[in-house]
């Protein structure tokens, strides 16, 4: 039972990382109906930039805001080069290939700068576990959960309380109407991409002390986060959290009780079931298009 509880703890921590990255998908989808398929590479870049800063002797707590600034700028570049041209010419799927291509370019840059090896990312805590309800939990796992929840809450508070956040919400509700009301919807879309990459970079710094940092680490995490977004629903923040926990816990339980070679299978099965039963996601809303 202690091992089972410990696996649940680890699964929740992993699921919250998936949820933060998936939250970035939701941010861009709500404002522009587009997705950054290089989101995993944004997480990887945040991790590698954070590792470089750590090797320079910078404190972990200072690394977090610096990496967030880097992620914000990286997301702005993705929107400017990959998404904006596709939106301007009203290309329905041009942004898909553009964001995938930029993700590959970023990964190639990372491989040439840091190589293809994996590296240990020093965390802010010792590796001594804490006893909680009879099971061991690492302090870093607690930080991952608290950090992920805090990031999503801060974005929600920003959207609800600030004038700029309300412009984001207005654009998400009706982009054309928001434009007619004087809101610069193009700038809002740019901001959503910047914020999306910021959350992914933040996730990279959070998860790397628990795993390993490397230039090839982003792709799989990005795809799993996308699965979380689909399972939970691209229109629901609560759904993304629930979807992240479901996939994270199923992955850790399968990896321990069956085999690590099958740990991704339950997530994919859940994804297929949800798509067949409720295509909008567990908490997503189905939109009716009037023609």
Topology at a glance:
Layout: H1 2-32, H2 39-55, H3 60-88, H4 94-114, E1 118-119, E2 130-132, E3 135-137, H5 139-161, H6 163-173, H7 175-180, H8 185-207, E4 213-214, H9 218-232, H10 237-257, H11 265-277
Antiparallel strand pairs: 1-4, 2-3
Helix pairs in contact: 1-5, 1-6, 1-8, 1-9, 1-10, 2-3, 2-4, 2-8, 2-9, 3-4, 3-8, 5-6, 5-8, 9-10, 9-11, 10-11
How would you describe this structure to a colleague?
- The protein has 291 residues and is mainly alpha-helical.
- It has one domain (2-277): Orthogonal Bundle (ABC transporter involved in vitamin B12 uptake, BtuC).
- It is 72% helix and 3% strand.
- The chain has eleven helices and four strands.
- The strands form two sheets. It has a two-stranded antiparallel sheet. The protein has a two-stranded antiparallel ribbon with strand order 2-3.
- Strand 2 (130-132) and strand 3 (135-137) form a beta hairpin.
- The longest helix is centred in the N-terminal third of the chain and has 31 residues, at 2-32.
- The chain is globular and about 60 Å long.
């Amino acid at each position: 039972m202690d091992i089972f509880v410990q696996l649940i703890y680890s699964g929740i921590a992993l699921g919250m990382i998936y949820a933060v990255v998936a939250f970035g998908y939701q941010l861009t989808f709500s404002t522009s109906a587009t997705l950054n398929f290089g989101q995993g590479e944004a997480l990887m870049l945040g991790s590698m930039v954070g590792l470089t800063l750590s090797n320079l002797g910078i404190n972990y707590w200072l690394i977090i805001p610096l990496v967030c600034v880097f992620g914000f700028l990286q997301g702005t570049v993705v929107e400017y080069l990959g998404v904006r041209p596709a939106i301007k010419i009203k290309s329905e799927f041009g942004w898909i290939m553009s964001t995938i291509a930029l993700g590959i370019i970023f990964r190639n840059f990372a491989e040439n700068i840091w190589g293809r090896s994996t590296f240990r990312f020093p965390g802010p805590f010792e590796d001594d576990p804490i006893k909680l309800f009879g099971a061991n939990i690492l302090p870093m796992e607690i930080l991952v959960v608290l950090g992920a929840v805090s990031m999503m809450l801060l974005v929600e508070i920003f959207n609800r309380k600030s004038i700029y956040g309300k412009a984001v919400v207005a654009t998400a509700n009706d982009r054309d109407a928001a434009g007619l009301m004087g809101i610069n919807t193009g700038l809002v879309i740019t901001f959503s991409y910047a914020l999306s990459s910021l959350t992914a970079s933040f996730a990279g710094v959070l998860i790397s002390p628990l795993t390993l940092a490397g230039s090839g680490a982003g792709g799989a995490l990005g795809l799993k986060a996308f699965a979380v977004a689909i399972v939970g629903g691209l229109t629901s923040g609560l759904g993304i959290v629930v979807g992240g926990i479901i996939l994270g816990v199923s992955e850790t339980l399968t990896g321990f009780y069956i085999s690590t070679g099958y740990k991704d299978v339950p997530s994919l099965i859940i994804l297929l079931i949800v798509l067949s039963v409720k295509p909008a996601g567990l908490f997503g809303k189905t939109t009716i298009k009037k023609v």
